[in-house]
Amino acid sequence: MRKSRHAVVSLGIAFAVALSAAARAQTTVPYDELARTEAAANAENGKRVAPLKSIGNPGDEVSPEMLAMIGAPYPPHFNADPKSAAEWKELIDRRAKLAIANIPAMKEKLGVKVEETKIAGVHCFIVTPAKIPTENRRRLLVHVHGGGYVFGPGEAAIPEAIMMAGYGGFKVISVDYRMPPDFPYPAAMDDAMAVWKEVVKTNDPRRMAIFGTSTGGAMTLAMVLRAKDEKLPRPAAIAPGTPWADIGNIGDSYESNEWVDNVLVTWNGWLGRAAKLYANGESLKNPYISPIYGDFKGFPPTILTSGTRDLFLSNTVRTHRKLRRAGVVADLNIYEGQSHAQYQFNISAPETREAFTDIAKFFDKHLAE
Amino acid sequence: MRKSRHAVVSLGIAFAVALSAAARAQTTVPYDELARTEAAANAENGKRVAPLKSIGNPGDEVSPEMLAMIGAPYPPHFNADPKSAAEWKELIDRRAKLAIANIPAMKEKLGVKVEETKIAGVHCFIVTPAKIPTENRRRLLVHVHGGGYVFGPGEAAIPEAIMMAGYGGFKVISVDYRMPPDFPYPAAMDDAMAVWKEVVKTNDPRRMAIFGTSTGGAMTLAMVLRAKDEKLPRPAAIAPGTPWADIGNIGDSYESNEWVDNVLVTWNGWLGRAAKLYANGESLKNPYISPIYGDFKGFPPTILTSGTRDLFLSNTVRTHRKLRRAGVVADLNIYEGQSHAQYQFNISAPETREAFTDIAKFFDKHLAE
Predict the structure, then answer these.
(1) Which residues, numbered 70 to 109 in chain A, qualify as contacts with chain B under a Cβ-Cβ cut-off of 8 Å?
(2) Beta bridge partners of B334
(3) Searching chain B, which residue's CA lies closest to the CA of residue A68?
(4) Are A307 and A337 in contact (CB under 8 A)?
(5) Quick one: CA torsion of A183, A189, A194, A196, rounded to 10 degrees?
(6) Measured between CA atoms, how close is B181 to chain A, in angstroms?
(7) Shortest Cα distance, chain B CAs vs residue A242, angstroms
């Protein structure tokens, strides 16, 4: 099915791309003809045929800083296909360097300091804001970074932790968990759980939250599943941002927002390859890998964030509904026009401050002082 | 810009449609070629080119009843273009008959009775469930139906009111407001406000909510704007379902979900024509017509509902964010795979019960007893 879909798609694209810009401008096919061909293509039950589209930037209530991200070309690595551990590492290192280059300015601007440490043998960063409000003095957040279980090693892990510390006024521990190609599942989860198990010994979990975006969102959910199964304390709240809740290519927006999302673009690029590398033969429906297949009963209050163009829009809303169905307090925030995780890429965008402020308010409401 | 987009789209479609099913099956264009052509088509800032797609039904956590709706062909009237008042009326009557035919079974199944009345001279329906829970005895909901300001006259107005009464155990007044072609803006809003002004004389607004879907969602928002401006009491909560908050063709999902949503399909069909018929020369940015341009400060707690394929996904999330930015309690629920308003089309779908139960719980939380 997938194959034949791509075949049809490809021909449509190839044909359209073959038209020169001049030819396009000279062609005027009336809307009514499009409506007729679309109606004919959609006469069959169970599938939806959408035409080739050119989608402009969303309207001017989106900030210029966010529009610059929304309208950007696909990232150069979207279809990366590393053939060996060495090729993966080269790609991972290259991207990490880009992320790390931005960190000094980010720390400076948001007024946070970063220290390295080991917790239960796991490399971590302690991210502390210059000012911690009184109500947050005894509160502690644990951060698990995103990056498809491959990107974001070392200091590249911490941009989101810096934003949460800076905008929210919280002390944050960011876990630099082990990743493929050297350490597939369950290393990342084992590291995150080792840190959790250690920090709850000396901190009251009623004053703690776990958060993370994308892969970090999936890990946040999976950590609560494991805490339940291992009879460990659970956090008082969680913020899985656009969580990779289904690591398999399952969920409506994997199709409807494919090639529309300009961050992840498609599951069939590096993303699905990273999924398989991480799972390393484990079922993609293992709830510690795809937490959407876990039991959400007893989960703490949860705040979720996504965008209308997000490839993980369905991951996010499926998680939200499943939480609600399990009786969990769950708050959903979807941003106009944003692709995957764009609410946490640029501290100059007002939507970034907005997203982290919303999460901070949610934590403030649900965490003990 | 719109014209040239449609031109490109049309050619893509025409080409794809021209391929016979057999030819499609025989063609195998590799994914990597698609990735290359898409990357090339997306090398420019400020626009997103998405290829022709065939999207299958979402996964099996969606109920069979909902999947039957999600996978259905476009409605026959999606591109209706009535050329006269008589042609509009013929279309409106034809669709009303279909809606009305389902009402007796719906009343029976949900155990509600319906009476006609006039309130402040406006034709209304009083929809009463057989059992009203104690906490709802003194509560009253006002319903404004959907239908693009043209569809849903008379008894065709009430299916959603029946669902709310039946699933929520509330007494509901459904306003059969005047509509085009005979009565353009502001007749619909004037009728709804006349009813509101009258019922708050004898009912405590702290025990009242307003709700409606699509056009009814926009009217719900616009009624609060008018209540503010006219110094009338405001309801204690509102439930604008997938509100037509921007009646103009503005909002990202008008493009990203165009031809993906199988209920409204495109703004350029009957929908945009109805918008212009209703506005009747008024600005489409008049906040009583497009409430997204109003001031949401002081709004009551609001619950919003939409779906990932909804043409009004952006209308819904723009409204949600604007409410949050104004400091309003606002709850957002997005259903996997649903097109516009599909959560309120079939009482046999579990998602329908779920959506109305969520709204009822929200009202229960925010309305005085």
Answers:
(1) 71-74, 78-79
(2) B306
(3) B46
(4) yes
(5) 150
(6) 23
(7) 14
Structure tokens at A52: 């080739």
Cα atoms found within 13 Å of the Cα of residue B312, Cβ hemisphere only: 31
CA end-to-end span of chain A, whole Å? 53
ipTM for the assembly: 0.93
Nearest chain A residue to B269 by CA: give it: A35
Orientation angle between helical segments A31-41 and B2-18, nearest 10 degrees: 40
Mean pLDDT by 10 residues, chain A (369 residues): 40 39 43 94 94 91 97 97 98 97 97 98 98 98 98 97 98 98 98 98 98 98 98 98 98 97 98 98 98 98 98 98 98 98 97 98 98
* Closest Cα in chain A to B256: A55
For residues A305 and A240, the answer to whether their CB atoms sit within 8 Å is no
Task: Convert chain A into a string of H (helix), E (strand) and C (coil).
Answer: CHHHHHHHHHHHHHHHHHCCHHHHHHCCCCHHHHHHHHHHHCCCCCEEEECCEEEECCCCCCCHHHHHHHCCCCCCCCCCCCCCHHHHHHHHHHHHHHHHHCHHHHHHHHCEEEEEEEECCEEEEEEEECCCCHHHCCCEEEEECCCCCCCCCHHHHCHHHHHHHHHHCCCEEEECCCCCCCCCCCHHHHHHHHHHHHHHHHCCHHHEEEEEECHHHHHHHHHHHHHHHCCCCCCCEEEEECCCCCCCCCCCHHHHCCCCCCCCCCCCCHHHHHHHHHHCCCCCCCCCCCHHHCCCCCCCCEEEEEECCCCCHHHHHHHHHHHHHCCCCEEEEEECCCCCCHHHCCCCCHHHHHHHHHHHHHHHHHCCC
Touching B: A residues 182-241, CB under 8 Å: none
Closest approach of A17 to chain B, Cα-based (Å): 7
Q: How far apart are CA A9 and CA A15, in angstroms?
A: 10
CA-to-CA distance for A225 and A223, rounded, in angstroms? 5
Whether B140 and B173 have beta carbons less than 8 Å apart is answered as: yes
- A56 inside 8 A of chain B by CB: yes
Could you tell me the pTM of the whole model?
Answer: 0.94
